[in-house]
Design brief:
- The complex is a heterodimer of chains A (453) and B (819).
- Chain A has 453 residues and is an alpha/beta fold.
- Chain A has 3 domains: 32-242, Rossmann fold (3-Layer(aba) Sandwich), CATH 3.40.50; 255-325, Ubiquitin-like (UB roll); 339-436, de novo design (two linked rop proteins), CATH 1.20.1440.
- Chain A is 40% helix and 11% strand.
- Chain A has helices at 32-37, 42-50, 53-63, 75-80, 106-112, 114-128, 142-157, 188-195, 209-212, 224-236, 238-242, 275-281, 315-320, 339-353, 359-376, 385-397, 406-428, and strands at 91-96, 132-137, 173-178, 219-223, 252-259, 265-270, 291-295, 329-334.
- In chain A, the strands form 2 sheets. Chain A has a 4-stranded parallel sheet, with helices on both faces. In chain A, strands 6-5-8-7 form a 4-stranded mixed sheet, with helices on one face.
- In chain A, helix 14 (339-353) packs antiparallel against helix 17, helix 15 (359-376) runs antiparallel to helix 16 (385-397) and helix 16 runs antiparallel to helix 17 (406-428).
- Chain A starts with 31 loop residues before the first helix and ends in a 25-residue tail after the last helix.
- Chain B is of the alpha/beta class.
- Chain B folds into 5 domains: 7-115, Ubiquitin-like (UB roll); 153-309, Alpha-Beta Plaits; 318-386 and 530-697, Rossmann fold (3-Layer(aba) Sandwich); 395-524, Dimethylsulfoxide Reductase, domain 2, CATH 3.40.228.10; 723-818, Barwin-like endoglucanases.
- Helix content of chain B is 28%, strand content 20%.
- Chain B contains 27 helices and 36 strands.
- In chain B, the strands form 9 sheets. Chain B has a 7-stranded mixed sheet, sandwiched between helices.
- The chains are: A alpha/beta (453), B alpha/beta (819).
């Protein structure tokens, strides 16, 4: 699942730009030796010897790097919110609790090249003057936790972490913290509560983490991919980074292609590439099938259809199409897939993962699942179908924007967008006989086992 | 002069309102009479924003001054939770009254809240006073789309005990977190918390460590909601999820009549609401008095009211039959006549002493005070039904009576609060909660001179100066010089009544206050203690703080009473009265509400009651005193009379009678009857008349009694292998006013002996110890605490007949051995 290699970064948007993924196919890429052999930690040495913290912040600001965790908030601006006159310690927390359905970029990155992240953490911590950083990683991915811990150990041994790093006078301790597997802990304030040893539920804002985050101290929370992008920016400069991508969505990102595509995997390319180009890179849809719907950034982003194949995948264009770029988790579904079934599975996830704090998400997902399940099984009368779909949309209307955090909002996206594009398919479930699709036809083993398609 | 309050002006539903900065929108709306529906919001708890019921439409002025609607996702009005949103200048809020979208949002949330709610209102204790029920009517829809579409509710097994007293019905719970937030924020008793997630999220107690049992199963967990303040969670629960074993299924709210009252269990004066039906108290709730107890009361104040309905309640007067020597029922007139005759004879035979206890309303205390002076011609009167000292009486006269140096609000403002001889969680719950509020806000530091870091002191994050009992005077004298402790005009010193047994301590506290400018308040344990000081139930004080030793004060009160003179000789204190009665020096006793086990020497007291020539007892229930008395008058419990308690602050707290029960008469009526019989009428027969006369007599405006000097410190030597015994009464113990509620008793803290680590080491791991003192021995489980090595601690009245009756005399030492 490694991207096809390409040598020249900063080329036209249609080609791959491997930066973060560049070393994934190197021999024992996760080791310090392999990472340094490929030029790793050069940016760190450069920064500690020649750059002031504020210069790094400026660099990241100028690069146009936006948060890769989904919301796309400018990273440099986030860093500049840290009040440097606050007497409390500053913290950097890396959100590695990747758990959005469809999203699979941070875990492969940390698996293949944990040192990219570690170097990014050191540079970022140096920039915001934090002496303590945490990587909050999803506990289920034990192999990644081990790899991160090994990388941190190597980094300490090499003097990249600890006291007086490379004689610069700068100290940094980095802790790998394994979460216990709750989707909500990917929400940054819930992550902080969890990191502090509490029940992971989102906090009231204000105060924002930049002012009172971890242990009520100024805290920057960034996604793995955002932090991992920092070494390349420091090494190659803001202009180099900004030369990629579109006017407002700069740089390269990892696109995670999954589903009914021939070669699923992580494809690193500039922002603004289209799904059509990515599908080409991925070998196209599986043979004999065509695209039915897809998510641009995980299940919380409203799904899109083939009409959006040539839409540039950047924050602005996807937003204009009524969805969100999110985590660029491109889940590709062909015509064998029942959209009702897919949406129900996602909603079951949200129901299971709702933290329970606020009413709309807790109760709303509970009820949505019941209605979707009955829709899938065709348990409503055909003549009440329109009414049920209106109810479904009204339920979503009562959740979206009413929930405590964005997770409740996200739960409504697949429902509203699927009803928008596939209203007739929903109703077809009520024509008698329930779901008109053969669920086996959409599986990966369908071809192998000769399921009629 | 205080800083002017910074304000902001905003518009809510077209009405401009100006509120202090940092006011929440939901509070600002209340100011102009707009009620936004809410569940998780509570004005005394930190905002949570969990239930989302209080959504409103908000627009803010942009940089160019034009209004910008708060939106999310862009283009879509995003309603804001008014319970978490701080009002800002120029904000425009539209509630459900003026915004269809806000109204729709609220309806949406209400619908969702109800989908998993059992809607069992007809059998729910909360039905009729339920915020969910009420707001579902006002801000919800009549029909259930969930039901119509065949929705299936989540269910849980019906109520589970989270303590012996509190039951939790998880189906009814809307997880607003008021109870868990209360537990964490207000008393600091984090025994309950959220468990599980999503629709399975529930309140529970610590899950079983073995992982086999479900959450919240008290029978296997053994870590119940062990809070002295647990009942408040029932009151603030916006649904019927929390109920008490005591009240559940007993009545419907609309059958109850509510009467405001004042709690009678401690000197805090907490406002309560007494809910009653057909002459019977069904439950008690906290009142809302921001200056005193805010909206919280202790479980004792809430649940301990059955004592007034116990089977041994006295219902009619009793007189000792001359022929049989037994007590027999008598009419009131006969009892008055017999009492009058007996007291006249006793007066002639050496005099009569008066012991009033600490539970009287101030008007009754005043009647005893006047009765002693005008009818019995004596100053032999003392309310202190506990170990006491002459030093204390002088302290009360010179430092306490007529003063109000510290209020609850002052506790919140003080930079430092010094606690000495006082464990506020056990002995004064409202003080504890106010101190916790102050310390949590970061304004106030608590310093405690105490024998160990009690749970209450730990929750106050107190600096504990570990002190053996008896060493308090020295600790106070050294306090001002102590590193890390600042004692100055921003300091409040709270001295508990227990200091009476520590020679020099009260004087040292007064000296500390004088030399540093700190304010000093005396905190007694019982509701009537401070009122008894004010009304002169002391051998050295007349009503209104008039010193007995001051001739002008005596003339003043004699004039007010229209008599020639009041006795000028200083009276005997409680211990001396009992000693004199035992020796035959005194001819008789008038005893009201005194438990012999509480006294410094219960054996001597019992002997004195037996030996006294003539004893008149005024009591609620049969006691050892009434059984030995010659005449017994039944008196009214606080529900049957109006009255006044004076708080530890010196704040008068009046209340009205809950019931009008013929024959249930206040003490003062019985005293008036005797006085009439003796031809020296008291001049009042009702509480109202007595209060009017008290007001007329008024406070003394002459010189206060001079400050006493500390009595010479007695040499304190601890023999080898002996330990000083520290003890105080736990909030919930074997006290007579807690009888009748088994669930409450079951939530009492266990009686344990606390020893230091080195003492425990010397006991070689014994799990129980036997303490032996000069009055007996007691065996109890042992726990290690940070008590000084020469000290052990145990609760005063949680085991057997209590420390004073069964173990050791005040200020004495004990031996400890493994049991």
């Amino acid at each position: 699942m490694v991207s096809t290699s390409s040598t020249d970064g900063g080329a036209a948007p249609s080609t791959l730009t491997p930066v973060l993924t560049d070393n994934w196919d190197a021999e024992r890429s996760w080791t310090l030796a392999a990472y340094e052999a490929g030029g790793g930690y050069a940016a760190l040495r450069k920064a500690l010897s020649t750059l002031q913290p504020d210069e790094i912040i400026t660099m990241v600001k100028d690069s146009g790097l936006r948060g890769r965790g989904g919301a796309g908030f400018p990273t440099g601006m986030k860093w500049s919110f840290i009040p440097q006159d606050n007497p409390n310690p500053k913290y950097l927390v890396v959100n590695a609790d990747e758990s959005e359905p469809g999203t699979c970029k941070d875990i492969p990155l940390m698996m293949a090249s944990p040192h990219t992240l570690v170097e990014g953490v050191i540079l970022s911590s140096y920039a915001i003057r934090a002496n303590h950083a945490f990587i909050y990683v999803r506990g289920e991915v034990l192999h990644v936790v081990r790899r991160l811990r090994a990388a941190v150990r190597e980094a300490y041994d090499a003097g990249h972490l600890g006291k007086d790093i490379h004689g610069s006078g700068y100290d940094l301790d980095l802790v790998i913290h394994a979460g216990a597997g709750a989707y909500i802990c990917g929400e940054e304030t819930a992550l902080l509560d969890s990191l502090e040893g509490r029940r992971g539920q989102p906090r009231l804002r204000p105060p924002f983490p930049a002012v009172a985050g971890l242990y009520a101290s100024p805290t920057v929370i960034n996604n793995v991919e955002s932090i991992s992008s920092v070494p390349s920016i420091v090494a190659n400069g803001a202009d180099w980074f900004a030369s990629m991508g579109t006017e407002k969505s700069k740089g390269y990102v990892i696109y995670s292609l999954s589903g009914h595509v021939k070669r699923p995997g992580q494809y690193e390319a500039p922002l603004g590439i289209t799904l059509r180009e990515l599908l080409d890179l991925g070998g196209g849809m599986r043979d004999g099938h065509e695209l039915k719907f897809w998510t641009p950034g995980g299940s919380s982003t409203p799904l899109l259809t083939p009409e959006h194949l040539d839409m540039p995948l950047d924050y602005e264009s996807v937003g204009a199409a009524g969805s969100m770029l999110g985590t660029r988790a491109l889940q590709i579904f062909d015509e064998t897939t029942c959209v009702v079934r897919a949406v129900l599975r996602w909603l079951e996830f949200y129901k299971h993962e709702s933290c329970g704090k606020c009413t709309p998400c807790r109760e709303g997902t509970w009820w949505l699942v019941q209605n979707l399940a009955k829709l899938e099984k065709g348990e409503f009368r055909r003549d009440e179908g329109e009414q049920i779909l209106d109810l479904l949309l009204d339920q979503c209307d009562n959740i979206l924007g009413r929930a405590f955090c964005a997770l409740g909002d996200g739960a409504t996206s697949p429902v509203t967008s699927s009803v928008q594009y596939f209203r007739d398919e929903y109703l077809a479930h009520l024509d008698g006989g329930g779901c008109p699709f053969d669920p086996a036809a959409s599986t990966a083993w369908a071809v192998r086992e000769g399921v009629k398609q | 002069m205080s800083e002017p309050v910074a304000t902001v002006t905003l518009t809510i539903d077209g009405v401009e309102v100006t509120v202090p900065r940092d006011t929440l929108v939901i509070r600002a709306a209340e100011q102009i009479g707009i009620q936004i529906p809410r569940f998780c919001d509570h004005p005394l708890l930190a905002p949570a924003g969990a239930c989302r019921q209080c959504l409103v439409e908000v627009a803010l002025p942009g940089p160019d001054g034009s209004l910008r609607q708060m939106q999310g996702p862009p283009g879509r009005m995003k309603p804001q939770a008014s319970c978490t949103l701080v009002a800002s200048q120029g904000m425009v809020v539209n509630t459900q009254l003026t915004s269809a979208a806000a109204d729709k949002a609220q309806h949406g949330v209400m619908e969702l809240l109800l989908i998993n709610h059992p809607l069992d209102c007809p059998v729910c204790d909360k039905g009729g006073e339920c915020p969910l029920q009420n707001q579902a009517m006002s801000n919800g829809q009549g029909e259930s789309r969930f039901h119509e579409t065949g929705g299936i509710k989540r269910t849980f097994p019906k109520p589970i005990n989270i303590s012996e007293q509190i039951l939790l019905d998880r189906e009814r719970c809307i997880v607003c977190q008021r109870c868990t937030r209360f537990a964490a924020e207000i008393p600091g008793d984090t025994f309950i918390s959220l468990l599980e997630r999503g629709a399975q999220q529930q309140i529970g107690i610590a899950p079983a460590a073995d992982g086999e049992h479900g959450p919240g199963d008290l029978s296997v967990n053994g870590e119940p909601f062990a809070s002295y303040f647990s009942g408040n969670t029932i009151q603030i629960c916006p649904v019927g999820a929390l109920t008490s074993a005591e009240y559940r299924f007993r009545s419907r709210p609309f059958d109850l009549v509510s009467t405001p009252g004042v709690a009678e269990h401690d000197a805090c004066g907490s406002a309560i609401r007494i809910d009653h039906r057909r002459g019977k108290v069904m439950r008690r709730l906290s009142g809302n008095d921001p200056e005193v107890n805010e909206e919280w009361i202790t479980d004792k104040d809430r649940f301990a009211f059955h004592y007034a309905r116990t089977p041994d309640r006295l219902k009619h007067p009793l007189v000792r039959d001359a022929a049989t020597g037994e007590l027999r029922a008598a009419s009131w007139p006969e009892a008055f006549a017999v009492a009058a005759r007996g007291l006249a004879a006793a007066k002639a035979a050496g005099g009569v002493g008066v012991l009033t206890g600490g539970r009287l309303i101030a008007e009754d205390a005043y009647a005893y005070s006047k009765f002693a002076r005008t009818v019995l011609d004596t100053n032999d009167i003392d309310f202190r039904a506990r170990p006491h000292s002459a030093e204390e009486a002088e302290f009360l006269a010179s430092e306490v009576v007529l003063t109000m140096p510290v209020t609850y609000a002052d506790l919140e403002k003080a930079a430092t609060v010094v606690l000495v001889g006082l464990e506020p969680e056990d002995e004064a719950g409202a003080i504890f909660l106010r101190l916790r509020k102050a310390t949590r806000a970061g304004r106030t530091k608590v310093v405690a001179i105490a024998p160990f870091t009690s749970r209450g002191l730990a929750k106050l994050d107190a600096t504990v100066l570990l002190t053996a009992p008896g060493e308090e005077a020295a600790a106070l004298a050294a306090l001002a010089e102590r590193a890390g402790v600042t004692v100055d005009a921003d300091t409040v010193v709270l001295a508990g009544e227990r200091l009476a047994t520590s020679t020099g301590a009260l004087t040292a506290a007064a000296d500390l206050a004088r030399s540093t400018g700190a304010r000093l308040a005396w905190v007694p344990r019982r509701a009537g203690d401070r009122g008894a000081v004010e009304t002169g139930c002391l051998p050295n004080l007349l009503p209104g703080g008039r010193p007995v030793g001051d001739a002008a004060a005596r003339v003043d009160v004699a004039t007010a009473w229209g008599i020639d003179a009041v006795p000028g000789a200083p009276g005997r204190d409680g211990d001396a009265i009992l000693a004199a009665a035992a020796s035959g020096e005194l001819g008789g006793l008038v005893v009201a509400g005194v438990g012999l086990e509480d006294l410094a020497d219960p054996t001597v007291a019992r002997a004195a009651i037996d030996a006294a020539g003539f004893v008149v007892a005024l009591e609620l229930c049969a006691t050892d005193v009434t059984r030995a008395a010659d005449v017994v008058f039944p008196v009214a419990p606080v529900t049957d009379k109006p009255g006044m308690f004076v708080t530890w602050e010196g704040r008068p707290r009046t209340f009205e009678a809950v019931f009008d029960v013929p024959g249930s008469l206040p003490d003062l009526r019985a005293l008036a009857g005797i006085a009439d019989e003796l031809g020296r009428p008291l001049g009042f027969r009702t509480v109202t008349e007595a209060r009017a006369e008290m007001m007329q007599v008024g406070p003394w405006d002459g010189a206060r009694a001079a400050a006493g000097t500390a009595p010479p410190a007695k040499p304190r030597r601890l023999a080898a292998n002996r330990f000083w015994l520290a003890h105080w009464k736990l909030m919930l113990d074997n006290g007579v006013m807690q009888v009748g509620d088994k669930a409450l008793a079951a939530t009492a803290r266990a009686a344990v002996v606390r020893v230091s680590a080195s003492t425990a080491a010397a006991l070689h791991g014994a799990s129980a110890v036997t303490l032996t003192g000069d009055r007996g021995e007691i065996t109890l489980p042992v726990e290690v605490a940070d008590v000084p090595d020469d000290t052990v601690w145990m609760p005063s009245n949680s085991h057997g007949s209590g420390v004073l009756a069964g173990l050791a005399s005040p200020g004495s030492s004990v031996t400890v051995k493994g049991a």
